[in-house]
Structure formats: structure tokens, C-alpha cells
Amino acid sequence: MKKRRFITSIGGVRDDSFIPYERQRGIPVIVYSVVIALAAWGAFTLFTVSDEPATASAGTRAGANPGATAGSEGSGRAVLAPGRELFEDNCATCHQEDGIGIRGAVPPLAGSPFVTGNADAPVGIVLMGLSGPVTVDGRSFDGRMPTFRNALNDEQIARIVSFIRQAWGNDAGAVSPERVAELRQRLADRSAPLKGEADIADTLGQPVGQARQKAGSGDSKPIGH
Prior knowledge:
The model is unreliable at 49-76, 210-216 and 220-225 (pLDDT under 50). This protein is mainly alpha-helical. α2 crosses α6, α5 packs across α7 and α6 crosses α7 (177-186). It has a domain at 77-217: Cytochrome Bc1 Complex, Chain D, domain 2, CATH 1.10.760. The longest helix has 36 residues, at 29-64. It contains eight helices and four strands; from the N terminus they run αααααββββααα. A two-stranded antiparallel ribbon has the order 1-4. Strands 2-3 form a two-stranded antiparallel sheet.
């Protein structure tokens, strides 16, 4: 059995009734200040974060209706968006995202009569590919372009061609999937790529360099309809 330890006073006199204790002290004011500050910060953060989804949703709704803020220009960008994505996925590696191409090998698309002239020209080139020289803006380009006839369907090709005919300052008409399907059928028996601008003119029925028509050379039907 453990012996009870007794506390003695400074004078050495034992006090059997003494029980050790710690004097109760008040909580420092600085602790109250820290707790209140943390609570206020937490409440502010909670209300700020909870308000962000509503703001984002409002922005999304505004973006979903470009005409509400940007008018017809915003609507035009929305129409071209699918074509832009297809172009970036399939064509931008060679033609570049800004349509300037590669000197001596890949012709530019901006301001090119092969793009803005007879719409059968860009459609046929995308379908069949190209192997042979073409001249754009007085410069010769003699690269090779693969065929996309088996990789892309009529609507996808229509979107790409419509995009390049209306991007980078080009102002030519859109192309419908029906027009792509018609040209695909007409070229069904041909397997070789188009061999330069002379072959483009012979195969597609109109010299591209002389066909600098704008909207009239495209289709009036909206893409995908």
C-alpha cells in the first residue's frame, strides 16, 4: 500500500488537510480575438465560394447565347466552331492554325483562290488529296496532301471547308454536306490524288484561278441541314 505524501509549508510544518490545486485563470483576450477572427474568415470564405457557381452559371448561360452580348459576330463564331475544331485536329499541323502554311511545301489557305473560288476545289482536294505543284500569290508549293475521303464523313468535310472559306479574312460561301456527297460520288472511281492545279481544273470542271467568286460559289443551306 502506497504511503500518502504530505505537503509541508515553507516553515516545515506538515498540513494533513492540504489538497494541491491550480488557481483558475481567465482565458487571455488574444485567444478570444483569434477565435473570432477565424470564425469571421470561415464565414466569409463560405459565402464567397457558394456564390461562385451562380456567377459561373450566369456566365455559361450568356456564353451559350452569343447573340445576347456579341450579336451576329458571336453567332458566326458559334457556327464556325465545329469546323475550327475539325480543322485543328486534321489540318493545322501542315496548314498551321493561322492558315499560313509552310513555305515551298504547304500553300496558305488565307486568300487562296483554291479556297475562296469554286467550292468544288477545296472539297475535292480534301476528298482526294493533292500531289503536284500549285501556285498561290505568285509562289509555288509542291507538297503532298493525304486524302480524307475515308477518314471524314460528308458533314465533317463540309464543316472544315466552310470554316476555311470564312476564316482568316476569307469571305466565301458555306458548303453543305449534300454538295460534298455529290462530289464524293462523282469522284468515286478515282483513287489517285489530284496532281496539281491543272488536274484540279480538269477534274473539277473550272479553272480555280479564274473562279474568285465569293458567297455565290458556296451553298445557301446551313451546315448540317
